[in-house]
Structures are given as structure tokens and as C-alpha cells.
Amino acid sequence: MLGGVETRSVSPVFVGRADELAVLTDALTRAAGQEPQAMLIGGEAGVGKTRLTEEFLCEADRRGAVVAVGGCVEIGAEGLPFAPFSTALRTLHRLLPGELAAAAAGQEDELARILPELGDTPRGPHDEESTARLFELTARMLERLAADRTVVLVLEDLHWADTSTRHLLSYLFRTLSSGRLVIVATYRADDVHRRHPLRPLLAELDRLRTVQRIELSRFNRAEVRRQLAGILAAQPDEDFVDSVFDRSDGNAFFVEELVASKESGCRTGLTESLRDLLLVRVEVLPDETQRLVRIVAEGGSTVEYPLLHAVAGLTEDELIEALRAAVGANILLATPDGDGYRFRHSLVREAVSDDLLPGERARVNRRYAEAMEADGSLVRAEERVIRLASYWYQANDPAKALPAVLAASVAARRRHAYSEQLRLLERAMDLWDSTPEDVREALRPADYTDVYPPCGCDPATTALQRLDLLAEATVAARYGGERDRALKITKTALRLLEDDNDPLRGAWFWTERSRLIAGLGRGDGWEEIARAQELVRGLPPSQVHAEVLVRAASWGMLHKPGPGNLAAAERAVEYARMVGAEETELNARITVGALLTDSGDAPGGLAEMHAVRERATKLGLTMLAGRAHINLTSQLESLGRSREAVELAEQGAELVRRFRLMDSEAWVCGNKAESLYSLGRWDEAAEAARRTLLVGQSAAPRGSASARLAYLALARGELTEAVHQLAAAHAHFGSHETQPQPQHRIPLYRLAIGVAAAEGRLADVRAETSAAAAYGFPLGQHRYAWPLLLAAATAEADARGLPAAEAGRDAALDVLRTAARSLATPVPVWTAYAEYVRAELRRAEARDTLADWTAVEKAVRPLERPYLLARACHRLAEALLAAGDREPAAALLREAYATAERIGSRTLREDLALLAQRARLPLTGADSDAAPPGPETDPAEALGLTSRERDVLRLVAAGSTNRKIAEELFISPKTASVHVSNILAKLGVTGRGEAAALAHRLRLFAAPVPVSPRPEAARPGV
After folding, report:
1. In the 8-state DSSP scheme, what is residue 453?
2. Are 831 and 851 within 8 A, CB to CB?
3. For residues 361 and 367, what is the distance between their CA atoms, to the nearest angstrom?
4. Is the pLDDT of residue 453 over 80?
5. Exposed end of the chain (fewer CB within 10 Å): N or C?
6. Half-sphere exposure of 779 (CA within 13 A, CB side)
7. Which long-range contacts (CB under 8 A, 24 or more apart) does 405-409 make?
């Protein structure tokens, strides 16, 4: 083989690009400070991207950085999955073997999907989180590798990148947060047309502040002159400079080609055609060398020397002579690792390839395929299958191409390159009809399908069908994030099934379609499940039948809770056991456990889910173990066992995090946040919710996390943040809002009620409450319904006395009482909520008594609900003061105030301080020994309100407009408007309703706390 060969047509002088090079070298400096750098270099073909990159890499090498370069491979339409990353990581593996092994420790099997040198690639697991899991592992490996050394990764020719490479690059650019790492990606800007798949990625990366994009322009005349001087080693003639500049238009590569054409004896004015300009130097080569160049052009971006030797049909001496001539003419270059050849510029390769005759192209591809079939060692093992598929396809031989393409799809699936798997399966379906029947009959589902369950046949002996490919393509599209494409494939499959009596296959596709429609937010998926159920009704037990039943029971549990779901889930368990589908059985048992708990059998339900968790963990079914943790923690919280829920959530998060099940981790962390909120550990709850937003891939866990942050903000008195997080929750749930699951919809109603109450919009509180009551509170949803009723009842009680609250009060309270009577109280925590709601409803009618609040405090105290207890203590202290019992009231106020301080509830703290101030009671132990406080401070004066502003606020609280205020106070409407604006600023609120609510809550215009007790009345039910 040939070593390095001098390339005289390349200028030894680096022309222009000083500013661009400075940006790149500055990135090196910043990376040395543990700040990862992401760079994009774009420009038209031949403008100088490679030369700029080479200069940058020389500087990086001079500074001691470890450099690895990988190029995207143009082969067929699909590209090699992760090709540039595999090449770059292979270089790092060679340069830093021990360090890379340490960075990948414990995850070698998964990372082998990108770097096969790390070990054998496992067959599974495959799910919608597989790709994200692989990407997360890759990012963490790179961060560890670059922890104490600067690492530079260069990914060239991104315009040829496969989908998986684009997605991985996007993930790295968005998530890398530490390490001395610089990632540079180059792309040919003139190839990125409006429909090019790289275009959306570039738009996405432009929105990231962490990504710097460098666009290279063409050279001006002075720069072309400097380039010519460098190439010619002499000052060029000015007429020659003008001629080259005019013909090249400042493109650096064209400048070199024009000079090379002149030096080889060709006339530079031969043609204005770019293709002819690029071919002119090829055509002056010896015939044998021209033939070899055409073979290399059709082999791909790079062709290995042994493969080229096998295909060219030349002796080794003849081959080396032909190669020497091509390299000497600067047409071909040896690859950096010395095992193959590539064109010096891809534009020349494209021109040569385009010049091939159709029959000539097919013949060359056939020779490549035949050589690789004869000797599998000619190329790397991980590339062999997909390149063979491409060569046979380009050879126009369907009988050979179909099996090869199917084998390549299996290889892509094993690398979690689901988008490439989908493209290959679509290519296989295109080949299907043109492939001889005897070839199709020899294909078996067991060899080429993985996720499609047997539908009444033996996959090892039954011939592969087109429907099998459609099923595999459906799941590949779903796993690859192309749900719209998956939905179209299911539609095609179901149309084909209209004429076939194959109910199991039909049921399978309807079940997949249900999952996709729900995931895309285009419905709840029930109609499709019902179709699947109808197809399997009356059939013998099968895995498909069991999966349909599991899907139906799970849908019912989330969307329409009721006793029928438990029967369906139990039948699914029975069917799965009968056919030996243990994974399906375990999945169904989780649903059974959750439904048992919802129906009142908590011990049985929890025991079932714990058993599944242990079995799934033992079998290595981490997705199922994660689902068991999700449901267990949710059910424990529903039972009021929040401390247990947190402990189990921590175990579950550790498990799913170890296997990078990111959505599973998001759900577990979201459940943990809910339980931490209940326990009053609000800072930890916020951290868990933010973790959910960070790792969650799907809308539902992210929406739930935003809702949890809105709960926290409301409780803390941070109204603006609560409004923001509620909007974020709605945005995450998207079109699910029209038919969402009750576990999502009811909390959104609750939050809307809380925000409206805080802003003084009592009419909206009532509207949201009525809408929630009309929506209904299905079985098992009492855990979300009781807090909603409590928020609405508290808003009604707090608004008592406001003129605007009187109209409609009786109807609003009737709605609350009716809803409360329908809710279950299966455990003490919900019994306490029921007591609290009853007391607030009585307070809304001024009928609450000391006995009412004593009962509430007694019910709440044992529950480990500090925020709820502090609120109950506030109300009980108020009732005690009304009864003249100051000492126990003072103790309760101090206890509640300490809790409000600890958990960070500003609103509750202010309410407690106001009550203590009005009753002239100390709030701390240190104050209790001090002298009695002086006269009560006027809250209006404490807020900085003038006498006139106090008068205006009184009228605002009564619902008066600016014109009405002006008439009442004998001032102009404009002056009234100015007063209102000043009041809003002093109160720190944003609207008149919120100001009125605050004035009412602070009792700015109310009578002092009464000193005589309310009469003890009987305690009727709600």
C-alpha cells in the first residue's frame, strides 16, 4: 500500500479564515475550563471547511488535546448508523484504551452498539427509551473521558449523516454539561435544501445558546491571489488571477482544480460546466487508472484496500501502479489509518459516479457484493451487512437484495438505530413484489422480526409475509420517534387485512394503532382497543389476546376506572400464563395490583405489585420493574403512606437510572415529588420535579412535574410562578387536554381553582369547580378530588363578606356538598380531608364551631402532613380566640408559624402573623416572656397605604369601577385610576381582583377578632 504522497495542488499557505480559526481556538481555551463546546462549520462544497478544520486540529494537537475525526458515510439512501461516532470513538479507543475502558465500565454491552470493539451487541431490550438510553450512556462516557484531558471530536459531512447520527449529535449538544470536550461538525450548506433532513436539526441547534455556528464564505479576489501564490510558489500574473477568480467565483477547491488543469496541459477555458471541470483531470489519467477511479467512486466514501483488490481484477502490482497514478494526480488519497482510499474531495467522486453508465454502475456494485460475500473479512464486521445490502440493491438484483436488506434491518435494530431500520424495511417492502416467490418463501419471521408476536403460526417454519414487515416497521417507527409514519403503516396493514381472515394480526395492529393515537394526542385510543377486543373475542388464548386484554384494562384504569377493568386484567394474566408469555403476564399483574388497591384491597394489591417488582428485577426486565415501582409509589401515596413511597421511589429511581430508562425515572421522580410535598419536604420535592423535567422524554411525566411545581408555588405564595407552571403543564399535555386521563385532568382543575382564588376571581373558582364536578371523579380518583374540593371550599369561606361573592354562593356550596358525598374515604388521610372540607363549607356560611376545627385538627395531626396540619392549626387557633381561649391558641399559632417558616409557605406565614397581630399574641418562644405588645398596628399603614388609597381600596374590594370610585370620592376617573395603580404596586399584586382578595384576607376593613365564643352547634354532615 501507498504511504503519504505530496499534494502540490493544495496551497501551503492558510488563506483567510483568521477570524473563524480564532473562534475555534477560543473554544479550546474554554473547554480547558470544564466547559464543553459545540461548533458547527457550514459552507458550500469546496469552500474550505476541511482546510479550516485541519488547521484547527493542528492547533489542538499543539496544545496537547486528543483528536478524533469521523466522517459520515454516503452509501445508498440510508447511511451507516452512527458511522462518524463509531470512527471517532474507534480512534479514541486506540489512543486511550485504558481510559476509554474505564469511562465505559459497566455499560460495555450497550455502548458496543456504537463502538463494537467494546464487546458483543445484545439483542435487546428494545423499547421507546432504548435510543435515549444509548445516547445518555454515550454522553456520560464522553464526559468521563474528557474529565482530565481535552478531547476534540470532529464529525465531517453532516449532510450525509444518518438519522441516528443526527439525533445523537443533537442530544450531545443539548445535554453535555461537563468535561474538557469540543465537538465540531461540518456540513455542506449548498446541499441542505428545504426538505433536507439536516435542515430541522440546524434550526434546532440555532436556538441553543451553547452551539456556535460558523458559515464560511467564498474568497475575495485578494484571497484568491494569495491562494494562487501559495500553490504556484510564485506571484501569479494578474490576468491569470482575474481569469481564475472569475471562473472559480472564489471557491477554494475550484481554484485548485483550475490550476491543476492548467498544469496538466488542459485549457482552463475548456468548458463552463463544473462537472466537466472536475472530470478533466481524471480523463487524462491512464485507462487502467480511470477504470480504477470509477470503481472507487461507486464503493462509497472510503474503500478498503483488500476490497478494492478483490473487485478491481488487477494483480497487486497493477493495482498499486494505478493507485499511484491516481494519488499522484491528487484524485485519490490514502485514508489516515492507512487501510484504504478515498477521493481528495467528494465533489470529484460525485462527478465520476454520475458519469457512470447505468449498466456499468450495476455491474460495479455486483462485483463489490460478490467480493464481500466471498470473503467476509474484507470490511469491518459492523459495516458488512449494511454495505452488502446497499451494493445488492444498487446492482438491481431483488433476489439477492431482499434478504440482504432484511439482514441489514436486523443489524440496525440491534444498534438501536430504529430510523435506519425503518428505512431498510421500507426498502424491503419496495423489493417485495419484484423478488421471486421461491426466495420469499424461504424467508422466515424468526430470522427478521423481533417485536411481532406469533399470530397462530410457528415463526421458525412459516414463510415471512408482507404483514410481518409492516408490523416490524410500525414498531421501528414508534421506537424511532416517527409516530405519524407508524400510524400510516398500521393503516396500510389494516387495509391489507380487510380481505384476509386473520383476526390475531388485525387485533395486533389495532392495539398498536391505539397506542399511537393516544401518544399523538389524536384521541384516547379506546375505539381502536374496542376493535381489537372484538377481533379476539371467542378465540383460543394467545399472546395477542392477552396483550389486548392488558391494554384494555390499563386504558380503563387510567381513563375510565371501574370494576370491569379488574376482570379484564385478571383474564389477561390467565391467558398469558396459558401461552407462556411471562412478560405479558407480569405487565398484567401490575395492572391487577393497582386495580385491587383502588377497589379497596390495599394489602392484596400492594403484595401483587411487590411480587412483580421482585420477579421482573430477577429476570432483568427492567422496564417492568420500573413500571412496578411507578405504580407502587403512586398507590402508597394514595394510601397516605408517603414516607414509604419516598423510600421505594429512591430505590426505583436508582434502578431505572442505572439502566437509563429515562421516562421511567421521570415517573418515579414525579411520584417522589408528590410524596415529598405531602411530607412538607418542599425543597426536595422541587428538586425531584425538576429532575422529572430534565430526564422525561414524554409529555405526561413532564406535564405532571410542571403541575407539581405549580402546587408548590401556590402553597409558597408565588403566584406568578404558579401561573407559569400551570401553563407549562397544559403545554406538555397538549391536545390531551380535551380527553386527558383523570389523574392529569383533575389536578389541572385544582390548580386553576387555586390560581383563580389567589387572584380574587371567585366566579372562575366556581366555574372550574362546576366543570370538575361535571367531569366526575371516577373510582380511585378521590386522592385528587379531595384536595380540589378543599381548595374550592376554602375559597368560598375566604370570600365570605365580599359583595361579589353573595350571588351564586348557595349553588356553589351545593355543588361542593354533592361532590363530597360521592367520594370515598378509605384511609385516614381522606377521612381528614372530608372533615376539613365539611368545616370549610360551614365556615363559608358562618356556621363553623370550635368543635368543627377541633375535629379537623385531631384527624390531621397523625398523618405526617405538616402543611395541612399547619392550616388546620390556623383555623383552630382562630376558633379558640373567638371562644376567648388564648393560651392554646397561642401554642397552635406558634407551632403552625414554625412549620410555615420551615417549609417556606409565605402566604400561610402572613396569615398566621396577621392573626397573631390582631390577637396581640407572640409567635416565637422568645417573645412569650416579653412584655405584652402595644396597641394593634393598622395593617393598611403597614402596607404603606395613604388615607385616600385606603378609601379607594375599600371601594375596589366592593367591586367598584374607576368611574364609580370617582363619583363616590368626588375625584376624576383618571385620578382614581392613578390611585388604583399605586395600590396594586404597594400590595404587590397584578389586578383588582387579587387586590380585593388580599384586602379581604388581611381583613383590612373587617371588625377585630371577637372575644366571645361562637355557640357550640351540633355537627351535621356535609
Report:
1. -
2. no
3. 10
4. no
5. N
6. 16
7. 405/431, 406/443, 406/447, 406/448, 407/448, 409/448, 409/472, 409/476
Q: Can you tell me the distance from the alpha carbon of 13 to that of 867, in angstroms, rounded to the nearest whole number?
A: 72
Give the dihedral sign, CA 144/150/151/152.
positive
The dihedral built from the CA positions of residue 211, 216, 222 and 224, taken in this order, carries a sign that is positive
Residues 362-376: what's their mean pLDDT? Answer: 94
Q: For 474-502, how does the pLDDT look when each residue is reduced to its tens digit (9 = 90+)?
A: 999 998 888 899 999 999 999 999 888 88
Cis peptide before 125 (omega within 30 of 0): yes
Instruction: Look up the pTM and report it.
Output: 0.74
Bridge partners (DSSP) listed for residue 42: 187, 215
For 2, counting Cβ atoms within 10 Å of its Cβ (0-12 exposed, 13-18 middle, 19+ buried), the class is: middle
| Residue 827 DSSP one-character state | S
CB atoms within 10 A of CB 735: 12
Residues 6+ positions from 890 with CB-CB distance below 8 Å: 877, 916, 921, 922, 928
Max Cα separation, the chain? 115
Q: Within 10 A of 288 (CB to CB), how many other CB atoms are there?
A: 15
Residue 788's identity, in one-letter code, is L
What does the block give as the cell for 770? 362546576
Q: What pLDDT was estimated at residue 592?
A: 94
Q: By the 8 A CB rule, do 978 and 984 touch?
A: no
Q: What angle do CA 983, 986, 992 make, to 5 degrees?
A: 40
CB 696 within 8 A of CB 881: no
Q: Which residue has the cell 380531608?
A: 833
Range list of H helices, 845-972 = 850-860, 866-882, 886-903, 906-919, 925-928, 939-942, 947-957, 962-969
Say if CB 983 and CB 940 are below 8 A apart: no
Find out whether 507 and 544 touch, Cβ atoms under 8 Å. Answer: yes
Cα separation, 673 vs 646, in Å, equals: 8
Res 1012 pLDDT > 60: no
636 CB-near residues (< 8 Å, 6+ apart): 606, 642, 644, 645, 648, 675
- What is the sign, positive or negative, of the torsion defined by CA atoms of 824, 829, 832, 838? negative
At 900, the pLDDT band (50, 70, 90 cuts) reads very high
Beta-carbon contacts of residue 587 (< 8 Å; ≥ 6 apart): 550, 624, 627
Task: Determine the Cα–Cα distance for residues 405 and 398; give it in Å rounded to an integer.
Answer: 10
pLDDT one-digit tens code per residue, 723-780? 999 999 998 887 544 456 888 999 999 999 999 999 888 999 999 999 999 999 988 8
What is the rounded distance in angstroms from the CA atom of residue 681 to the CA atom of residue 712?
11
Quote helix, strand, coil % in the chain, to nearest 5: 65, 5, 30
- CA distance linking residue 24 with residue 58, whole number of Å: 12
Pick from 112, 197, 140: nearest CA to 163: 197
pLDDT class of 705 with cuts at 50, 70, 90? very high
Q: Is the alpha carbon torsion for 608, 613, 618, 623 positive or negative?
A: positive
What b/e sequence results for 48-72 when a residue is b if at least 16 CB atoms lie within 10 Å of its CB, and e otherwise?
bbbbbbebbbeebeeeebbbbbbbb
Q: What is the pLDDT of residues 373-402, one digit of tens each?
A: 999 899 988 889 999 999 999 999 999 999
pLDDT at 20 over 50: yes
Q: Does position 104 have pLDDT exceeding 60, yes or no? A: yes
Neighbouring residues of 464: CB distance < 8 A, sequence distance ≥ 6: 440, 443, 444, 445, 447, 448, 449
CA within 13 Å, CB half, 227? 31
In angstroms, the CA 733 to CA 745 distance is: 10
